[in-house]
From TrEMBL:
The keyword Disulfide bond does not apply. Negative regulator of class I heat shock genes (grpE-dnaK-dnaJ and groELS operons). Prevents heat-shock induction of these operons. Keywords: Repressor, Stress response, Transcription, Transcription regulation. The keyword Repressor applies. Residues 110-345 form the Heat-inducible transcription repressor HrcA C-terminal domain. Pfam families: HrcA (PF01628). Belongs to the HrcA family. The gene is hrcA. This is Heat-inducible transcription repressor HrcA.
Length: 360
């Protein structure tokens, strides 16, 4: 049972040094090491006494009775909330790398996110995650109808986060057999209809599409009433089917070299989560259901704070990226709880800020 402890400056300094030494070495930390390597100007007995108090408070523990101390999840939480100063230089470093490496003029948005995830993984040394934008949060940017046969059209949709989707629908244009060669006239009519759809639908969200009323149409388009109603159902269904957002993942091989993942079962559970259970991981990385969560710029979940068992040996740092004021995706890093938080937090924050600025 932990004892509540008000941390004095000495307590904070020794706790900070213990956690930093453990992060660097992955070895339990004893009082002798702290006295030799840190200038506390106190005796080994005093340091040992403080370590004992910190252990009773639940901030440290001894894996074995004869060993030094290691941080608990609560100790890491205190460290992150009270004792660290994020390294702003590394935030500027990844911003510079993203500006240099990403080609917004010719790459697709998914390709941009793939490369951004690789850069984040390389600079952090941990598993980097970036979610593709949530379709339910996206708005329609452009629509185009293209004839693929006399009986079918393809509706091509582009969202404001530059995702492209397409759906096949029945052709509403009745073309007599003797006019089947009149391709130019058909294309002109499809373009007029595409322009009309853009004027009516551009900028609408999925929720707004679902409630759109086609009962009052301009006179020239009344003949398309049934087609437009059917098209709207197909459009909403197609967008809804992609609401479960894929997560781009890089850096797995690097983090699995950490001693925390020496047990095969832990590796298998984490890999299964990343590869097969992204639907369970997504709510942890991209928390938009709770408005209070969005107030905090960067969110840090440490060890037992993660609800999934496969994430218990890990820390997860995440931040949303926005389209204007609307959060549409998230940037995250997964690593051991023995993570270099001073570097990882600004890496995640700067990457999310960069994507938000670029999308704006």
């Amino acid at each position: 049972m932990s004892v509540r402890l008000k941390l004095s400056d000495r307590h904070q300094n020794i706790l900070r040094a213990t956690i930093q030494h453990y992060i660097a070495t992955a070895e339990p930390v004893g009082s002798k090491t702290l006295v030799e390597e840190y200038n506390f100007s106190v005796s080994s007995a005093t340091v040992r006494n403080v370590l004992g108090r910190l252990e009773k408070a639940g901030l440290l523990y001894q894996p074995h009775t004869s060993s030094g101390r290691v941080p608990s999840d609560q100790g890491y939480r205190t460290y992150v909330d009270q004792l660290i100063v994020p390294d702003e230089k590394i935030g500027k470093k990844i911003e510079k790398s993203l500006n240099k490496e990403l080609n917004w003029d010719s790459w697709s948005f998914e390709a941009l996110l793939q490369r951004a995830t690789q850069i984040l993984a390389n600079l952090s040394g941990y598993i980097a995650l970036i979610t593709l934008p949530q379709s339910s949060a996206n708005r329609l940017r452009h629509l185009q109808l293209v004839q693929v046969s006399s009986k079918q059209l393809m509706l091509i949709m582009v969202t404001d986060s530059y995702q492209t989707q397409s759906v096949l629908i029945d052709n509403p244009l009745s073309v007599p057999e003797e006019q089947e060669d009149n391709q130019e006239g058909i294309e002109e009519e499809l373009q007029i209809l595409s322009n009309f759809l853009n004027s009516k639908l551009k900028g609408l969200s999925l929720a707004e599409l679902a409630t759109l009323d086609w009962s009052e149409l301009d006179q020239e388009f009344t003949q398309y009433t049934n087609f437009l109603k059917k098209l709207l159902r197909e459009l909403a269904r197609n967008l809804q089917s992609s609401v479960t957002t894929p997560i781009i993942v890089h850096g797995v091989s690097e983090v699995l070299r950490q001693p925390e993942f020496s047990q095969l079962q832990q590796i298998q559970m984490l890999l299964h989560l990343l590869e097969e259970e992204q639907d369970q991981l997504l709510p942890l990385v991209f928390e938009i259901s709770n408005p209070a969560v969005l107030i905090k710029r960067v969110r840090v979940k440490i060890g037992s704070e993660n609800p999934l068992e496969s994430m218990r040996p890990c820390a997860l740092i995440s931040a949303t990226y926005n389209q204007g004021d609307l959060p549409i995706g998230s940037v995250g890093i997964i690593g051991p709880t023995r993570m270099l938080y001073e570097n990882t937090i600004p890496l995640v924050e700067s990457t999310a800020d960069y994507l938000s600025d670029a999308l704006s």
